[in-house]
Write a structure and sequence with these properties.
Blueprint lengths: L6 H17 L5 H16 L2 H20 L15 H27 L2 H26 L7 H14 L6 H9 L1 H6 L4 H4 L5 H18 L6 H32 L4 H5 L1
Protein name: EcsC family protein
Pfam family, one: EcsC
InterPro entries: EcsC
Length: 258
């Protein structure tokens, strides 16, 4: 029996199609120019700073994914409609963008040391948002497979355009992938931490490194953090929307829509 979609779900499916097309586009002139400028900025940053950031990315992500501290106290919104989950997700995104902007402004105004402190704090804010987002769409982060899904959403939001199509395919086929996952302890060894760190740094470095510049750190910090949460919100909401629609159809929507 063919599933019946609400008008809201039909509109969302059309939005997801456009999003998918955008993920598969070649990088434009602006993105290539930004990458070149970012590379120049990176050469001006001491190697010690780069190593600190790299270690921080791995440490915070590992802690959030394989610990229990980030799991929300509220139960997942199982049984909620897509519209209801989206409404809750929008509330969360609005809140976390404000939190991230305030944090970026505060650390940005404090010079290079506080600017560096912003990196682990911001990653923690992002991961906490994604955990809350999963529950908004009815998926419990007590299940380690849901925390691994969050890792792929995180990477999708902060990877180069060349990596996004493959990450999208992982998200689109997550139900089948999750069914084949080994125990959590062994799966952690299969994660390419080096690639995750490098892609994340390459995506955010230009904006965040400007935060370390004296005199403009506060303004740039607020702007950068707000924008990074916005990007994460788009990737996160769309990833969970796909899953929720496909769950409704037991996967039948995969070939037709995504």
């Amino acid at each position: 029996m063919e599933p019946t979609y609400t008008i809201y779900e039909q509109q969302t499916i059309r939005q997801l199609r456009r999003w998918q097309i955008g993920l598969h586009k070649e990088p434009g002139l602006l993105e290539r120019t930004s990458k070149n400028l970012q590379t120049r900025v990176n050469t001006l940053i001491p190697d010690k700073v780069h190593k600190t950031i790299t270690a921080t990315v791995k440490g915070i992500v590992q802690t959030s994914l394989f610990g229990m501290d980030f799991i929300p106290k509220n139960e997942p919104l199982t049984g909620a409609t897509l519209a209801e989950s989206d409404a809750k997700a929008e509330e969360l995104l609005k809140l976390y963008k404000k939190i991230a902007a305030a944090e970026g402004a505060g650390t940005g105004a404090g010079g290079i040391l506080l600017g560096l402190a912003d990196f682990p704090i911001l990653i923690g804010i992002k991961m906490k948002f994604l955990f809350e987002l999963a529950h908004a769409y009815g998926y419990s982060t007590k299940d380690y497979r849901e925390r691994l899904f969050i890792l792929y959403v995180f990477q999708l939001a902060f990877s180069s355009s060349t990596k996004k199509p493959a990450l999208y395919e992982t998200i689109r086929n997550w139900k089948a992938i999750a069914a084949t996952l080994p125990p959590a302890a062994s799966y952690t060894e299969q994660i390419d931490w080096q690639q995750l760190q490098q892609e994340y740094r390459d995506t955010i470095d230009f904006r965040k490194m400007l935060q370390l510049v004296p005199g403009i750190g506060a303004v740039v910090g607020a702007w950068a953090n707000y924008g990074l949460l916005e990007e994460l919100g788009v990737a996160g909401m769309n990833s969970f929307r796909i899953r929720k629609i496909m769950d409704k159809t037991a996967g039948a929507a995969e070939a037709e829509f995504f």
